[in-house]
Amino acid sequence: MINLIPIRSVSKNSMKSARIKTLIWIYIFLVPSIVIFLSFYLIPIITVVITSFTKWDGFNRPQFTGLSNFIKLFSSSIFYESLFNLLGWSVIAMTAHVGFGVLVAFVLYRKPFGWKFTRTVFMIPNVISIAAWAMIYKYFFRNDIGILNTFLRIFDSDIQINWFFEAPYAFWAITLTWLFYSVVVTLLVMGDLMAIPESVREGARIDGASAWQMAWYIDLPLCRNAIGVGIICSITARIAMYEVIYLTTNGSRQNNESSGNSRSLDNGRQLRIRKCCSCYNAYRGSFNTLGC
Amino acid sequence: MIYIIKKILGKVFMYSVLIFTIVVSIFPILWIIMSSFKTNGEIMRGPFTLPSSINFNAYKYLFEKYDFLTYTLNSVLVSFLPTFLSLVFFTMGAYVIAKYEFPGKKLFFALFTMTLLVPVHSRTQPIFSLIVNLDLYNTKTGLMLVYLSSGLAMSMFILKNTFQSIPAELNESANIDGAGFCRTFFSINLPLAKTGIITAGVLMFLTNWNEFYYANLLISSSNNRTLPVITILFNSMFNYNYTNTFAALVVVVIPGIIFYALAQRQVQESMISSSIKG
User: Fold this and answer.
1) Which domain holds residue B191?
2) Which of A156, B150, B220, B254 is the most buried (most CB within 10 A)?
3) Cβ <8 Å between B260 and A41
């Protein structure tokens, strides 16, 4: 069978119809993604925004009530507690969490003995189910059989802290569940580090810089990009952190370790949908104020 | 002399960071594995003690009383199928966005990637209504539909970059040789994008396997349940039988670790790509 190569006629009409044919194929290829986007993202978001201005019990028609949900939200003390927690966690995320990730990246970059193993192991907390992780930590922090208290009782044998259920400790307990697990930041920074050309380091070495000076003055500024991305990711993850809070503390409000997300879902679970929607919107607002 | 001391201190510092990282990452997992072999009394006595004997009683009890096989199979189905379908859809979408110019291209890509900013949990109520209205509550199909959408932003991003790294000359020469649209896609671009597709696929698979929130929300009967949900079942039921709780946690955690061990490099690459938000 002869393979006929079609002769491309240069007439405008055939080029136009070829173009139209391509366009049709393009849109056909796009349709499934667009359908998914519309039904699972766009329409839900619009629904949430619109219903946040209404009073709705889920069955009858929603009644337009203007800004009353938002007023209720902004005058509730729990909202400000959540926001305060969120800000606190964001600050910790920006500094300690990302800082630890950068530190590990720099150490791993020098390739000491066992660095590959460390990198592999460091990822394990990120590949297991977040629910399982939260439960593990729930037992870690328990008063009776938890490891932390057993360890602390070596120093002071009267310690009886119920970490997840007492006021100031719960915040720190939750912080500890994510504080040292910054493998994403480490991977990003290591990628950036490996991209630094050797000539820069050679020059510094010739000028007599010590390893510490090289790390501080050369490597660190050149990793700015990765560190920035790491900070954004970290803060985003704090905002979306729901499973940990819900599973460890049952989202209990008295203990002021809720964050915007778990609060809105707490209410949502009781079918107070208007509050859920207004929380979501105010929470989107707080997200924007963090500068993302 | 001072130089040597400094060097030694430097090395000590480095290795202590290394050891700390390893301990902090692996210790919780080792702890629950060890504790799942101890008896209740041993657990109460002290967390650092080794178990006196390795008995699989807790696991035997779990597998007899609960249908773990069903849960695992459900998890496998609910992770694989949506990942595969998503890959098909998103590869097609990312290909046209990467390779062709058409009206609305920038708009669509911006919309797709902006979904990253939306927290998964805020869409709860509309998605719940949608699934209920489709009469898919408490079915695996409903859950799979939700999972289909969860990887949109990330996969689009990864796949678009993958296709963009395939040189445009290949497409042009295919065009000259007379290949149609589909032919160019299937025979030329798709095989070259394999690594990117695997990266996106691994990421989505892991996300779906470990997903807890919607699995808990949308499925209530025991024979449709997936694996992560069982962790909270044992929250109330096993309040005073810690061995079984730890055994259950181990069962939930181990598949993830095994998968990671098998597909290490892909997982690492997908972690990196998933954070680069263009």
Assistant:
1) 65-275
2) B150
3) no
Q: Which two tokens stand for residue A123?
A: 């990822």
CB-based contact (8 Å) between A15 and chain B?
A: no
| pLDDT tens series, chain A, 292 aa | 555 656 555 567 777 888 888 888 888 888 988 898 888 888 888 888 887 777 766 666 767 777 777 777 777 777 777 778 888 888 888 888 988 988 888 888 888 888 888 888 888 888 888 888 888 888 888 766 677 777 777 777 666 667 777 666 778 888 888 888 888 888 888 888 888 888 888 888 888 777 777 778 888 888 888 888 888 878 877 877 777 777 776 644 333 444 545 555 443 333 233 333 344 444 433 332 222 2
- The answer on A261 and A170 residing in a single domain is yes
Same domain? For A192 and A140 the reply is yes
Yes or no, beta carbons of B122 and A129 under 8 Å apart: no
Task: Classify residue B221 by burial, with Cβ atoms within 10 Å: 0-12, 13-18, 19+.
Answer: exposed
**Containing structural domain, residue A26:** 18-68
**A91 and A58, same structural domain?**
no
| Residues on chain B touching A114 (C-beta within 8 angstroms) | 18
Per the listing, tokens 């393009």 go with A26
Chain A, chain B: beta-carbon pairs less than 8 Å apart? 247
Q: Are residues B140 and B27 in the same domain?
A: no
In a domain, A9, yes or no: no
Residues of B in contact with A124 (CB under 8 A): 25-26, 29, 257, 260
Token pair, residue A125, equals 């907390």
| CATH number, position B163 | 1.10.3720.10
Rounded (10°) angle between helices B2-35 and A115-122: 40
Task: Please give the ipTM for the structure prediction.
Answer: 0.79
Of A30, A115, A187, which has the smallest distance from its Cβ to B93's Cβ?
A30
pTM of the predicted protein model? 0.79
Q: Measured between alpha carbons, how far is A111 from A16 in angstroms, rounded to an integer?
A: 58
Specify whether B121 is located in the same domain as B208.
yes
Name which of B102, B231, B277 is nearest A23 (Cβ-Cβ): B102
| Cα nearest neighbour of B126 on chain A | A44
A42 and A88 together in one domain: no
Same domain, A35 and A169: no
Q: Which residues of A, range 196-215, sit inside 8 Å of B by Cβ?
A: 211-212
Q: How many CB atoms lie within 10 A of CB B262?
A: 9
Instruction: Please answer yes or no on whether A212 and B115 come within 8 Å at the CB atom.
Output: no
Number of domains in chain B: 2
Tell me how far apart the alpha carbons of residues B239 and A75 are, in angstroms, rounded to a whole number. 38
Both tokens assigned to A63? 């009644």
